[in-house]
Amino acid sequence: MSFIELKNINKSFGKKNSKVDVLEDLNLSIEKGELVAIMGKSGSGKTTLLNILAGIDTPDSGEYLFDEKPMKIRNAADGVKFRRNNIGIVLQHFALINDFTVSENIEVGLWESGLSIVEKNKRIIEVMEQLQISDLKDKYPGKLSGGEKQRVAIGRAIICRPSLLLADEPTGSLDSSTEENIIKIIQDLNKTNGTTVIVVTHDDEVAKSCMRTIHLEKH
Question: In sequence order, what are the residues at sequence separation of 6 or more whose Cβ sits closer than 8 angstroms to the Cβ of residue 9?
Answer without folding.
Answer: 23, 25, 26, 27, 28, 52, 59, 61, 62, 63, 64
